C-alpha cells in the first residue's frame, strides 16, 4: 500500500499526464502526435499504454507474449511494480486488458542528459493473449540501415498541439519520413544537441507532423518493422527539428540480451 506521503509526492510530481518536468525541460521533451488522425487499435495492435498507478504514462510496443519495448526516460523514478500495461485498447483508459509489469529493464548505458540509448524492455507478469487487437511487431536486424525518406508511422495518445492536453482519449497516428542522422545532426547542432548512432530521426523539415511526451516510448514503424522508439525533440512539430527516436536496429543486441528475441 502506498503511504500518504508517497501519494502526495506522486500527485505533485505527476500533476497531469502531460507533465514530464523531471526528465528535461518541456521544450526538449514535448512529445505528442501532431498533424495526425484518430485510429483504432486493430490498425496498430502492437501499441500499448504503459500506465503508472492506472494512468497513462508512456507508449510501448509488443514484441512477444511477455515483452514490451519502450523508452528508458519514462522509468527513472517509480518502482517497477507501480506500472502496468494496457493492451488491445483504442482508448488508453478503457477497454482491452491490463497486465501487471514484472521488471523494467532500462539500457545500462542510457544517458538522461543526452538521451543516448533511450530504450527499455518491459517484462510482464503473465503472457498476452493475441488476437486482432493484440499482436507483435517485427524487429529489424542488428544495425539494419534505414534509408532516408522511408515512410514511417508513429502512434500514441499524446496531445495534438504543442502545450495541449495529454493524453488524448483515442489513439492517434501520423506518417513521417525518415531523415538521415547526418542531416538531423545539422539541424540539432544549432541548439547544441547531438544526434548519435543510438538515435534515428523522422519528420518533415517544414514541421507540422511529429511525435516526441504522452507519446514517449511509443512505436515508429516502417515496412512492418519497429524501427524507432519515441524519445525526444526540440519543441513539437517545429520546422527543422524532426522527432528523435531510439534506433531499434542499433539497439537490437540489447533487446536480444533481455528478451532472447
TrEMBL record:
GO biological processes: proteolysis
UniProt cross-references to PROSITE patterns, sorted A to Z: TRYPSIN_DOM (PS50240), TRYPSIN_HIS (PS00134), TRYPSIN_SER (PS00135)
GO MF annotations in UniProt: serine-type endopeptidase activity
Keywords attached to this entry: Disulfide bond, Hydrolase, Protease, Serine protease, Signal, Zymogen
InterPro entries recorded: Peptidase_S1, Peptidase_S1_PA, Peptidase_S1_PA_chymotrypsin, Peptidase_S1A, Trypsin_dom, TRYPSIN_HIS, TRYPSIN_SER
Stretches assigned to the Peptidase S1 domain: 33-261
Superkingdom in the source lineage: Eukaryota
Signal peptide extent: 1-19
Keyword Acetylation: no
Cross-referenced Pfam families: Trypsin
Entry keyword Disulfide bond: yes
Family: Belongs to the peptidase S1 family.
Descriptive protein name: Trypsin
